[in-house]
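In full, the data:

***
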Amino acid sequence: MGQKVKSKVSQKFLTYLFFLLIAVAIWYLNALNKDYTADFRFAVRYTDMPEGKILANTLPDYLFLTIQAQGFTLLRYRFRLMLTPIMLEASYNTMQRKNNSVQGKYFLSTQSMFGRIAAQLRSDVRLQQISPDTLHFHFTETISRNIPVKPAIQMQFEKGFLPTGNMLIEPARVIVTGPQTIIDTMQYVHTQSKVFRRLNSSLSAPINLLPVSQLRFSTNEVKITQAIERHTEATIVVPIEAINMPEGTTMRLFPGSVTVNCLVPISDYEKMQPHLFRAVVDYNYLKDITDNQAKARVALLRTPDFVVELRFHPYNVDFIIEK
C-alpha cells in the first residue's frame, strides 16, 4: 500500500515538473522575443592610415558598443557567435588635426563614425552608444638607418671542439625604418636568443631578428656561420725582445724566452712558428727602477688569430741594463 502511494506521488511530481519546464521554456522564449539593451566589446581594426607615417602612440584594441536588439540576437552576441571586428577608417578624411601647433597629432570622434560602425552590425541590431568617444593618433615621420646586427646566441661545444675564426652574419647590417626618436637610440639590431648545444662541426643556421615595436626591418632573418674544429694543445718557445731601448743601451734578460701554451685547430697546427708571436719587455717601464730585486714584466704583443686559450710563462724575468 505504501509503495503505491509513493508511486502516485512520484508520478504527480514528474507531471508537475514536466509542465513547469514547459511553462519556463515558453516564458523564456517569449522573453527572448522582446528588445533589450546590452554592452559588448568588439575588436577594432584600423584601416587606411596615412602612408609614410608611423603611429607613435598605442590605440585601443577594442570598442565598447551599446546595442539594442531582440533577446535571441543579444544571446548570440553574448556567446561570441557574431563578434566580428569593427573596421575603422583612420585616414586624413576621417581624422581632425588636434592642434595646429602640434605636428602629427590627430583625433577621431567615434560619434562621427556612428553610421559606418552601425552598418557593420546586423540589420536587426540598433547601435545606441560607442565608447570611447574619441581616439587619439600621434604620427611621426619615418627615417631609415643601416644598423649592424648583434647575435644573441650561446654555443656549447663537445670536448676538444672550439670555434675557429670570427662568426659571419649575413646580412651583417639591416635597414631599419621607423620613428626617428627610436632609431636614433639604436646601436644594434639584436637577434632572438638561442642556444646551440653539443657542437662538433661547423655551424650554419638561420635566426630571427628580435622584433621592435613600431620598427620595420629590411629582413626579419639573418644567417649565422661559425667554423668549428677539433683543437689540440700546442707549445712553442718565443724569444723576448727589448723595446724602446735608447741608442747605446742594451738589456740582458734571464731567461731570454717564454714558453707559450695554447689550443690550435688541428688544420693549423703546422703553421705554429715562433715568428708569429712577439714577446717584449719595455725599457720605458724599467729605466727609473732602482730596486735590484725588481723584475721585468713580459707582454705578448702579437699572436696568430687562430690560437685560443693562450697562456705563457714566465710572466716576469730578471734583467740587466748595460750602457
About this structure: The longest strand covers residues 221-243.
